[in-house]
């Protein structure tokens, strides 16, 4: 996504500018061409050499240097830029941009460029909430600028409130989102499911699986980076929420079914990468089941969660969960053509089981993997998948990071949409 993108990072004179060092470094590591432009006060917080070291490129700051090269540089930078991200954006610079004031290198580049403008404000809480700052931000948004809202937290002054610069991952997500506005999924609404489900036995225990959600979250981020509006329906996972993605949390298969059926009514694509439990306890206990009592007795009046044998073993009564993709295949009243992609996590007979699922659930594409492999199982950062197409084509992809698998899947979905 960021490879060979020309990203200009504007740095204003605020204490939060030290965080921009990590952002510039991460952009460079992702393959972006990063040019840093400092305001005259920013280099009193972080020296230009620091940014030059992590960007591997010159740093620009003085519009009035005697050689006259800056006059050419600000135009060159403006014309070459794919995006101008001002991180942090101070109240002073925001006011200048809103009213077209050009008195330094950064504001000159900002006024000259046709690239999208991304602002990440960071300042004292009352400066951010001041009507003047809010009016300036509103004016810039009306003109097409994108805003990364500051976080509420502890500020440099020691106060607690809005004005804290978000972390690097959030800023990277915002930059990718803006760069992807003209991607090959622009205008599409996609639904991605991720993670496993948890079916309660009692308020303490549940029936679950080993899914980490990493594949689904990678799919959601890739779709966002291509310009799609993404609804991510996630079971319980320990992953950060991708920036710019609409997250809907669920726990059980029934909750996921309801969320999916609601989301697909105006969607173009559904990718079911979640590991949905096939079975659930028939009668979850309302209170914790005690080992000494066993079964549902003592867990709640009239409950029959399971049965305890005389040897102390316990049998749990399970019933089938709804088949979300199977039921979707039978629905005739969807308002538009829905591209459907399923996943099959197998431990044996991968090809046979995948082909059966593909046709039985009327999918356009099925992604199958052998979860017994060490490089393709639950929780890994890589995946080894085989793609099964509705027309009978089978693609065996090499082991690659889950981000790469996500890109490959969306490449095929884009072809199906077109």
Notable traits:
Rossmann fold, 13 helices, alpha/beta, 418 residues, single chain, six-stranded parallel beta sheet, 32% helix, elongated, eight-stranded mixed beta sheet, 3 domains
CATH class of the largest domain: Alpha Beta
What general outline do the C-alpha atoms trace?
elongated
Q: What is the terminal separation in angstroms?
A: 21 Å
- Based on DSSP secondary structure assignment, what is the total number of beta strands? 24
What fold name stands as the CATH topology of the largest domain? Rossmann fold
Largest sheet descriptor: 8 strands, mixed
Low-confidence stretches: 295-302
**Roughly what is the average pLDDT, rounded to an integer?**
91
Which superfamily, in CATH terms, is the homologous superfamily of the largest domain? Answer: CoaB-like
Radius of gyration: 26 Å
Specify the helix fraction band: 25-40%
Helix tally equals 13
CATH architecture of the largest domain: 3-Layer(aba) Sandwich
Give the domain tally.
3
SSE layout and pairings?
Layout lengths: L5 E6 L8 H10 L3 E6 L9 H8 L3 E2 L8 H12 L2 E7 L1 H8 L6 H8 L4 E5 L3 H5 L1 H12 L3 E2 L3 E4 L5 E5 L3 H12 L9 E6 L4 E2 L5 E2 L6 H12 L3 E6 L11 E4 L3 H11 L5 E4 L6 E3 L24 E3 L5 E3 L1 E3 L3 H7 L8 E8 L3 H11 L4 E6 L11 E2 L1 E5 L4 E3 L3 E2 H16 L1
Parallel strand pairs: 1-2, 1-4, 2-3, 4-5, 5-6, 9-12, 9-14, 12-13, 14-19, 19-20
Antiparallel strand pairs: 7-8, 10-11, 15-18, 16-17, 20-22, 21-24, 22-23
Helix pairs in contact: 1-2, 1-8, 3-5, 4-7, 9-13
């Amino acid at each position: 996504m960021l490879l060979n993108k020309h990203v200009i990072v504007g740095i204003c004179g605020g204490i939060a500018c030290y965080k921009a060092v990590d952002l510039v470094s991460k952009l460079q590591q992702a393959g972006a061409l990063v040019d840093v432009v400092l305001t005259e006060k920013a280099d009193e917080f972080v020296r230009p050499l620091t940014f030059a070291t992590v960007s591997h490129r010159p740093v620009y700051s003085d519009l009035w240097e005697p050689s006259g090269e800056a006059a050419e540089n600000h135009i060159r930078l403006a014309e070459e830029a794919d995006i101008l991200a001002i991180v942090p954006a101070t109240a002073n610079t925001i006011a200048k941009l809103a009213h077209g004031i050009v008195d330094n290198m950064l504001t000159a580049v900002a006024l000259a460029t046709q690239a999208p403008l991304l602002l990440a404000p960071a300042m004292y809480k009352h400066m951010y909430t001041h009507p003047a700052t809010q009016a300036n931000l509103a004016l810039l948004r009306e003109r097409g600028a994108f805003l990364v809202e500051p976080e509420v937290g502890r500020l440099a002054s020691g106060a607690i409130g809005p004005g804290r610069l978000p972390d690097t991952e959030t800023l990277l997500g915002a930059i990718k989102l803006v760069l992807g506005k003209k991607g090959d999924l622009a205008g599409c609404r996609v639904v991605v499911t991720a993670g496993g489900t948890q079916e309660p036995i009692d308020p303490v225990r549940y029936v679950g699986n080993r899914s980490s959600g990493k594949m689904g979250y990678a799919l959601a981020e890739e779709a966002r980076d291509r310009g799609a509006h993404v609804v991510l329906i996630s079971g319980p996972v320990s992953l950060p929420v991708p920036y710019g993605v609409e997250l809907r949390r669920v726990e059980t298969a029934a909750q996921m079914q309801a969320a999916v059926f609601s989301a697909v009514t105006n969607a173009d694509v559904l990718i079911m990468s979640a590991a949905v439990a096939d079975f659930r306890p028939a009668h979850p206990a309302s209170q914790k089941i005690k080992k000494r009592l066993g079964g549902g007795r003592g867990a709640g009046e009239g409950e029959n969660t399971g049965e305890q044998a005389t040897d102390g073993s316990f049998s749990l009564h399970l019933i089938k969960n709804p088949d979300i993709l199977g039921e979707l295949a039978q629905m005739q009243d969807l308002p538009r053509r829905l591209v459907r992609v399923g996943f099959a996590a197998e431990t044996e007979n991968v090809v046979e089981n995948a082909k059966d699922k593909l046709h039985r659930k009327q999918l356009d594409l099925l992604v199958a993997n052998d979860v017994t492999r060490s490089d393709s199982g639950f929780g890994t950062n890589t995946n080894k998948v085989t793609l099964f197409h509705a027309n009978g084509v089978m693609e065996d992809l090499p082991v690659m990071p889950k981000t790469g698998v996500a890109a490959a899947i969306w490449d095929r979905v884009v072809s199906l949409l077109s």
